[in-house]
Structures
1.
Amino acid sequence: MIADSSGKAAVTSGSCEGGREDGAIRVTRHEQPSLDSLKALWSSLPGGALHTPFQSPGFVDAFQRHVAPAAGARSWILSASMPDTHELGALLPVIAYQRGPVSVLTMPDLGLADQNGPVLSRELAARPHLAKRLCDALVAALGTADLVDVQKIGPLIGEVDNPLFHLASTVEAGGILVFEAEDLATIETRFGKSVYKEARTKFRKLQQAGVNLVEVKEPAERLANLGMLLRQRADRFASLGREDSLQDEGRVAFYRALAASHDPDNPLKILALKKEQEVVATVALMAHGDIANGVLVSMGDPSWRRLSPGTVLLVQSILWARDRGIRSFSFGTGLQAYKQRFGAVQRPCRRLLLPTSLKGNAFVKALRAKQAARAILETIQKTGQAPRAS
């Protein structure tokens, strides 16, 4: 079983609750810290904090205030100290919730995060062997549950190794398309390629029609633009006969909280193509430091679709990232064909899947059986025949 890290020591103002020793590494649990406490924890990491936008204080705070309660989840932060200096070296945001009869430990995600990994001190990031030790200690201290299930673990956090990716209990789980620093630096040369040439031509036509590209920065304007994005997305999904997961009350509240935030470190960025007050297309990104990730895109009136505003805005979001020093830009999870047109590099993803009870084992066996059945069906659809048994 995974060890329970919640001691009985007195709770202090910073909401630290006890700790657990793993050799010389101390792991401490911080119960639902406020945004200010999250920022203090992150800033206490020597050399600064290294993480994806989905582990930023703003993202974690909005998640634990809005998404976790709606999902019946509990949330906390684990911190691990470096054995030589005893300074904080790594943090891991954690949530616990029920998936049917199975109790699950994971990270703040539930479909809202595209990249998962620990928060590392920049000093620790230069010591990958020690970073793995600290992550081993954090996973060992997660708490009691039937299953640990963390998805969308990429090999890198920006340009640094993601120690969760290398844990023995991870399994292969799809991929993610990313522009590396060298790709972003040479993006202008890609305008010779069909998709970039098309985007440049269509953007010029949109500008001639009175459409401008804007970064929406003011909270009130961000809220209005987000509301339009959600309505446009809902209309689009309804026309396709598909359920829109963003209509969930907790998720809407999560995005509204980020849109309304005055925090200068707010990870939510919104770009829009607008003609006066009309929103032609919108893209929402999560960005922190030199990492950015597209998360939502919507298009307005169908009359604009001949000018491909979605394609134009995706290209403009890449250029926006490049111009702001971003060194790793992703279109998010999934390897859809439209994403592959832009020339991004495919990175593998892994999934930390660790059953710790009979119910957890049963869940994993059922999941693997379902995945195997899906793979057989996909093979039959592609080839017309079932794969041979190995």
2.
Amino acid sequence: MERFGSVGFGSVLLVCLMSGASALLHSANQHSRCKSCDPRPAACISNQCNSNCSVSRVCPNPQDVCAAVWWRGLSSGMVTVETMCHDPALALRGVMLQDYSGSECVLSITQTLRVCGCTGHECNERLLFSKHTEEEDKTATASGINPFKLKQLCRFCDIESTVCNGTGVCESSCHISAICEKPEQVCVSSWRRSNGSAIIETVCHDPALPFRGQFLKDFNSSICEMKRVKGAEDEYVCSCDAEECNDRLIFSDGADPVSPRPDEPKLASLLLVCLVPSVVALVLLVSLLYVYCACRQHKLKAPATKDMDSETRAIIIMNDDDRSDNTLNHNLELLPIQLDSSVGKGRFAEVFRAKLKHASQSFQTVAVKIFPYEEYASWKTEWDIYSDAELRHENVLLFLTAEDRKAAQQYWLITAYQERGNLQDFLSQHVIGWDELCRLGGSLARGVAHLHSDRTPCGRAKVAIVHRDLKSANVLVKSDLTCCLCDFGLSLRLDTYTSPEELANSGQVGTARYMAPEVLESRMDLENIESFKQADVYSMALVLWEIVSRCSATGDVREYEPPFGKLKEHPCVESMKDDVIRDRLRPEIPASWSNHTGVHLLSSTIEECWDHDPEARLTAQCVVERFSDIISSDIITSTGDSGSDDK
């Protein structure tokens, strides 16, 4: 009987385990597994690209498919690919997926971006440029896009001297890349001796035409293998069709210094045995770091909403490297933009709602900030800040591109458009609930923390930036009721090599109502770059006070007013000195804020952020963590006011 009971219990346990495993397998089968990587350079050959993504994950929603976004930088020429899980019912970077039921990711044709979707296992690892319908081909041709093959990116220095001696493997020493004029052209290099000196020529060339008296061979290769020119003793030519493949020249009839000699197989095997475990351990370590970073970012975010923001994230990479005149590339075509109406005007520029026309004749709503020619310095400062690729963040306004509109004597900055407008106008027209307070305040803190950080969320180095004009009018409200920072015309990059003299020359800037005491008094500690961040935190505290003052969770919502609202509309620096420095005044914290535990805790955080002593203030990242702790705390209870109401 005891034996029977033991067997019976074992059988039941086995059945349970098998059922659980089956359920888990069934659950996993309901979700796609896709490549998921931030934008990164892609390897493209002929009519396909490899995403170069080593990270894959199970999609969070059963309706998600694997997707990818492809674009080529207008100035750098670099092809970039971003991979992710995506709900095909939503627009991807402003474009709807056309066909995502297949097992291959076939890129669609648009003016600036290409997107694709598929349903196979990690099917977005390889992206294809396939044949389209006759109508799509006409549209693509009209837009200057060849649907069958990408225009090649090659080294292009024409003729220059070289130290390459025509044996083994050599580098071209050419530092200039160019997108070939025609899609059928390939990358070509030639090496020869002239008057005793070696010279190299790097160009784009159509293989249907002869080059230096002979037709090119092996131009479909991804490497540039030198072949001797017939009838010439000291002249070689190679061709290939991979990006910048004519930079590395391989002389096959010479010794290849990168290949192991026949008498070295044991050494190669020994190195392989020693390196493989180290590489595996390194990959595991990087994977764990990535997972930790992703989890930490998720933890610090405010609670998600069902109606997530679907703002267009079309990206046009703009670089001004090696441009001594600090201007745009004058050869770039201006985007087809139609201005609608003015939505705001500041000291240096005016912002317009506008329409960006796509090749498909559809329109995308964008914002255009227009500077007159005499405000070049302000435009250039803001453009320099936006051009930093590491600035990209969900709580920083999405930047598209910058343009020099010579005909109108104007400089343009083109960004995403936020229909809800700026935070000041939003708060003056709406009463918010506790959940909305957390979304608005938490996202504001995350945006400022990202600016101030010298690392991206996943550990990449970035230059810390201070805004220096934080106020509710310079914060936009997105459709999901989170904030994004804008207007970086007074911002400053805190490079480690920036001297105190340069910092001192930046002047006393900002809006007097939101200036920290030390800024009003012109007594910033220029030896410590953290002092600039501390001034930003003071200004952020005033904006947080504005948000909390319109929250219905306290049971006492007053009419909207800016900080120090009893002062005149645009107080000067001297009048702010009297209140902020001499009298140590701060905006009122009403007694009713103690009626709600969460609001009470936030008011304490705000008071720490506007402390008179800069060193005593919290950092922006600390405020992010405070929001996270308050939101996740069990003692916070909702008052039932979770939606915003009109004023």
3.
Amino acid sequence: MEGPSPEEQMEVENVGRTISFQSMHALNELRQQKLLCDAIIRLEDGSAFSIHRALMSACSPYFRALFTTSLHENERTDILIRDVSFEAMRLVIEYAYTRNTLVDADNVEMLLRTADYFNIEGMLKDCCSFLMTEIGPRNCFGIKKFASFYGCVELEREIHNYIMRNFVDIAHAPDNEELLNLPADEMCEILGADNLNVKNEEVVWETMLNWIERDPQNRKQHIHKLMKQIRLGLLETSYFVEKVKNHPYVIENEDCRPLIIETLKFIYDLEMITQRDGEVTTPELARPRVPHEILFAIGGWSGGSPTNFIETYDTRADRWVKVKEVDPSGPRAYHGTAVIGFDIYVIGGFDGMDYFNSCRCFNAVTKQWREVGPMNARRCYVSVGILDGYIYAMGGYDGHHRQNTVERYNPRTNQWSMVVPMHMQRSDACATTLNGKIYIAGGFNGQECMNSSEMFDPETSQWTMLAPMRCRRSGVSCIGYHNQLYVLGGFNGISRMCSGEKYNPETETWTPIPDMYNPRSNFAIEVIDDMIFAIGGFNGVTTIYHVECYDDKNSEWYEATDMNIYRSALSACVIIGPPNVSDYIHKHRDKLMEEKRQKLLALQNNQRT
């Protein structure tokens, strides 16, 4: 005999919760009317509460022991509790009957202390959950100390992760008293952490100086111990020479001298690395920290056929890492990806023969692949965006027609549903999310490469045409970045382009940005480390594996390490804060210098031949 379906099981659970809620509500009404109560709790201020012993015992081992102990000849029905305020006791009893903690910023400390005293696990969790919503750059250390004092291990761990992840914001918060008043040992522990989320070590050095300058007479003695936590070898050479090497605190502390010499030696060795004999080890002062975001590059077209190759980018080590858990269902190219939590959804695409409406999902934590609900239409060259927890698939090619249709995936129901279509048919376009709206740009309509773009507003459920781009772009990439829509590369009908432009939604205008180093179409794009990364693609002659990144603060492109394989028609996405981040980063961080030496030697040998 078959068991209940998931829908029937959910209905049974909902009915059970409703009955339970109604029962608790009825008992709470009886308590308020002092009906059928079988005990009284008294406080030192003379106040008293009529309660049902069974209900209080169900929520707290403290009360269960109090009411069921065999140490007394008679049942205890009149209890005096010391050192608890009227308001605290009222809220505890309210929780026992409603399982609802009435917690706010004014009472959370009192409630957590009381919940700890009575060992009420649910109330403790509610208080910790509330505190997590209150964490900010200026109070995180105080809340962490509070959590440690009351043994809230999970909350303390979450706050530690918050501090590691948001250290730059914490360090830049003006006059951050909590940070500046940390003890020296705690400051050392934070600055030395491998997973301190800093793009460059200048932030760490400046934070250390700010901490010392709060009380220089007593704190500058710690500079040697603190400097050992900074990856001095990762500082820009000019910054190290001008701002670190000759800083007065450093010069007057003799213990700092060996650190300065070691760093200078590292800088010198880096310039002369090819002249070294034997394997070169990367010293601790130059080993990159662990990133908090991981960029995945998935699938694509490589060597004349589709691939299911996956690699991740370690931003701190500037290295690509092969992921062995490829999709067992096979390769695909010209697909889209979207991330919800730790799930990567791979949508539509083409394998050289079939145009897909199928969608696959990879969980970056469990590393398991699964099939999810198929789209209503086959979509190769599809554009994908994510908004409010829904995935949108727009346009594409089904093997016969370029489409203007749009559908939306609900991960809670595992179903796609059609939404209002775009104004234009588009395949080989690109979509992104910006300020609560979806933008799609360029593409091919079956006759010509397009310079049009449009915007979808979920509140009105309407598409609006935007001002045309400066160039026609098919096989284009676009991304929301610093409140503007950036559109890069693509094919204009004649050649692959390295140009880019950005759209300002406030002025409704397009302006050019500096050219990429490499012309490319059908490449992947993502924002990580507050920079736009352009990954792989086709340059008009060959598939490439080149990667470059754009920083709009300097309006400049920088070269990054190439991918492991040449590919175009791939897709990229970013997972934030996976608990198993170490599975996706460069493992041999002590061998980065040796890897660089080998590459330079190989390059020199090639130039000679």
4.
Amino acid sequence: MQFRKFWIAFAIFLYFYFELSHGANILGVFPYRLPSHFQVVRPLVKALSNRGHNMTIITPVGIFADIEGVRHIRISNLNKMSENLLESNEFLDFFSSKWSEAYWIASMLSNVSDGILSDEGVQRMLHNKNERFDMILLEAGHLDALYGFADHFNATLMGLSCVIPTWNVDLLAGNPAPSVYEPIMPREYNFDTSLMSRFSNWIYITEEKLLSYLVFRPVQQKLFNKYFRHSSKKLSELRAQFSVILINNHFSMGRVRANVPNIIEVAGIHLSEPPEPCDKDLRRFLDEAENGVIYFSLGMDVLIKFLPKSIQKLLLESFTRLKQRVVVRSDVSSIPNKSGNIYVISQAPQREILEHPNVRLFITHGGMLSVMEAIYSGVPMLGIPFFFDQFGNLHRVQLAGMAIVLDNNALSVDILTSSIRELIENPKYALRAKEMSLNFRDRPMSPLDTAVWWTEYALRNQDISHIRLNEDEFPFVQYYGLESLISWGLRFGFVIGSLFLLGFRIYQKGFNRQRQVLKTDQNIVIYARNKKSDLQLRKSLQSN
């Protein structure tokens, strides 16, 4: 009998052991053909796979190597539209104004969603009744049509924001607190806090929201209706079903946010992977720099060969004026080096360069990961932003005191050279950069461990009502505390109305009195006239 009980207990133990230790099925949708985004995605996918979760990810072709144990669905259509755009010399013209940038983004997002949902591999997955996913993990942007994956597979919807969080991320997370500091396209945005700037920024954000409602969402709605026509939920309902959203941000980077519990800051995920080492020649160039080193890079998204020749020329002329050595990451190998202080490299081990003790300054376009790595290494920055989030990334660290930001449309050799010398020779920038580095590194858990923990938290807790601040639960008047304003408004309104009524009555009484006096005077005049007429008539009769 005891032997039988033992085997029953052992079978129950094995059942629960394998049931509880069974990994979840997670579908990740990461469509952007930008290497910087996948530097954030790759460590998280690897970590989740290593913990036993079954990962399937949808990506462009060849954006990064296959990850062992992960099923890849590659979308070739995503490559074609990116290549056609990047190979065009008119690429930067899309970002000449906010409106042209918005037009480009709207069409790009529509093509991305349609390219994914129309892919044969994705369609096979959608129509395979054996496919099951517990979670849909995707970029928390304006790819609304892709939210249909969550309803189709009855899965938890989780977001990942690889760029600076915006008001759209706040809305998806159920964080309706008003914010005039988080635009999506901050090209003409004001980063100071004056009254006029706040008003201008409020108009700016309102315009972006109108673009979202009138341009972005209708196109995504059509795609959603086309590919998920049998969905049991509306697209607006799916937008409100995001559980946890991981954001590539940290309060130490110069911007403190008011986050609800399901917005998790995980900036620095990509730093969990080992950095690429320097080769011998580059190492020697850095080690032997007696006056320090300046590192110049526009990241992996802005190619120097596409920059105007005038900017290329003034950059080179400015570098030759400096006594410091300059490491230039460039896709153009034939850069003249008359002064002998320039080292050109096509694929730079950026993290290793920034960690070198001789590096004094980082000249950057302001990509999120580049800014993050400079903060991590404690290196001051000279920012030359071009588009998207680069303006906001750089202006925040400028306000924090470790950077100077220049307008790429107003560059000159003198401005560039004087800014470089100010950043290197004034010790306040280096000191502030070291302080921000310490704050960025000081955390209870690593960014990757934090991201993994909250991902599994979202898997364990499918009911997300306790971590979201749903706007429907808080009427507009109650959320903003307008009931007290209404109460005071009614009181002041009653007092002001009473005073107005009293004043009106006094005015009316005085007016009536004046009117009565005037009427009496008129009657006297009329009587006098009549009396005079009567006397004249009598005289006339007597004379006759």
